[in-house]
Amino acid sequence: MTSTGALARRELTLAHRATLAEAADEWAAIAAATGPADRAAAEEGIRDAYRAAGLVPPHKVLWYDSPLAASVAATVISGAFKPQALAALGLPVRAPAGSRAGKSVRDKLRAATWERARTEAAAQLGQAVWAQAWHEIADRLWAPTTGLSARIREGVEAAVAVAVGDTTSGARGGVAPGAMGRGSAARGTDAASRTIAVEARAATLDALGGQHDAAWLAAFDGLRRCFPELGDSPAAEALDAVGRVARAGGWWWPYEGVVLAAERPVALERDENARLHSGEGPALAFPDGFALHAWRGMPIPADFVTGLGPQGSGLDANRIRREANAELRRVMLEIYGYDRYLEEVGARPLHRDATGVLWRIDLPNDEPVVMVEVLNSTPEPDGTTRTYWLRVPPTTTTARAGVAWTFGLTEAEYHPARET
Questions:
Q1: 417 pLDDT more than 80
Q2: What is the model's pTM?
Q3: Angstrom distances, CA of residue 7 to CA of 1, 67, 231, 235
Q4: Which DSSP string do the residues of 76-123 spell out, in sequence order?
């Protein structure tokens, strides 16, 4: 093995960076994987992860069709609720029988593994190499995976609230509760319903992310590909086991004696910025029907887009103005087209200069939408030119100032060599 002193002087070469990029690509695909989990491989990885952490492997792994169903079961294991109490509110739950499940061991499997691996990598490679590698690979995956996990947590809370009849919740943006039911009427007090929903969301914090742990697992995997010596470290065995679970399945809740494991989604739709996005159905869906609906990352009601007709054919300016929810109205504008809306309402430009045209749309109970209409001077492959609409702050007074703002500049600082 290369000495620690030699390793500390290592630098990331172009070949190393290419290897890190390959690892990032592979783990991005793992994070976005849909379809049935490889349960056998996941369970083998789970048991190996327990052994690597010095724990007795679980005697049982219970599988659930979504993080929602597993989270509700986790509230029983944590002692927050009894199955009978949840059943009385119409919330079905399948949890380990008796008291065979002990306390959560998540920190021993995830936090401890992460810290051991980070400490060893930084000690052997040097802090600079470790930090650069993290920037090269984990930063790319961190926002999409943590953002998706956060949306699932929000969805779990919302779906449980709907299922148990939390009448104070209002519209629960974009959530289809699936197997939890739909709670047509309050079955208990709103306070009790909210408590159950909050506890279910809290239970998600006891889970490892499985495929959604891709960012930090990718960083260590990429480094070990660049520097095989790291594979001999004490943390390597634990990393390998947790990584195999991530490659094979979704979220999992490790307890003493029992693990709850959730299936991967059956559908995942995102836009070019990796935000949940679909105009035709759920943006994220699990086998039991638990689903999230979103438009460019914003939660929307399950039937919102489909209710607007194909390609927004049921929309007009009056319907857009009548929409009481400001965020949904903005989605309508995007689907309908700002240019069509401006023409239909007879809008006049606020300002025009060489950079473009500044428009303002006044909306009821909302801040005005101010846009810069910009013509791309670079022709498309078919010879046509394309118009872009740039959303800018409502206080913008000139087209140039609006375009400058999109580059993080003031109007005085914006002096492009060539307009594009």
A1: no
A2: 0.81
A3: 10, 41, 14, 17
A4: HHTTS--HHHHHHTT------STT----B-HHHHTHHHHHHHHHHHHH
